[in-house]
Amino acid sequence: MMGNLLALIARLLSGASVRWVDCQPDACQRVYFANHTSHLDAVVLWSSLPLHVRALTRPVAAKDYWERGRVRQYMAKLFNAILIDRREIKIHQSPVDLMLREIGDKYSLIVFPEGGRSSGEEIGEFKSGLYYLCKKRPDLELIPVHIENLNRILPRGEFLPVPLLSCITFGAPMWLEAGEPKQAFLERARDAVRKLKERE
User: What is the pTM of this model?
Assistant: First the structure.
């Protein structure tokens, strides 16, 4: 119940409109991958999913941010986030392995392949994590998502959101193709998000 309330508040604060382009909401296992410009991104994207899909979807978020203070810790629990420690990444305990262990054969993921937040003007280069995630689980359906205007609603360094309108656009499913090189896949995935921006 509290998770649903958080989703409602996030939608109201962000004024988010949601569009599905060549794609429909589905509870099958997916990886939603999006551009990243605001700390609100994970919560607003998660809250944009229908309730039955949201219940099976876990955002991946930075542990150092979401464990800072009781309110953020509580919010992270409400949206069932997988918290990644960006400061202590170990080869035998990689973030990709953690994600795969946490989702099993049940949950979907929300990831931000740029790694950190960008300015919102250009989508940054994608890190290799998305590729290795798909290489280990090529069955996962990949859904590109473009998030528009959240960097203005909660600018970098600010605590209180500014009431503006935003848009969340979900694109057509894609998969890692057999034998596809890492760089070619990451460029194709980034381009899928960029094309959604052009259609807004």
Answer: 0.86
